[in-house]
Sequence to fold (179 residues):
Amino acid sequence: MDSFELNKIIAAILMVALLIIGIGKISKIIFHVEKPKIPGYAVDVEEANQASTATVKSVEDKVDISALMAMGDATSGEKIFKKCAACHSIVKGGKNNIGPALYNVVGRQSGAISDYKYSKALAAHGKSWTLEELNGYLIKPAKWIKGTKMAFAGLRKEKDRASVIKYLNQNSDNPLPLP
Fold:
């Protein structure tokens, strides 16, 4: 191959490169698009999250506890409680395990057992374990009290929650009257 052939190949490559650049410049002139002053779309992520959290909270607050408690029974609650028994004891005078003892829990102040080290969030919660509070907590503990160290996924079924709450209420010196 002589130098003339090599020059033709290099010229063809340069011509194609110049043609591509030229077509790009010409198309920008023909199809001129004005750029917006502020690029992109404004999306209020904060407000959407707050609205959905507020909606979930209001739905959870409006649970008819008497209708919910009518769904459950303490015998099935005892069976369902076996999920909890890995960390909690339910017997009178029972010791604290990974989680605190739950005998007399219904009606008790949250974070009230003195010889158990609660998470800061649960110790600062400051509410009593009413039927409504237990229902909300058992749906998903980490969501109900943010910062709790309880790593339980929760009980999604209303009947299961009602049964466990009835079982917890039954295991008390002074069970609360059910609605």
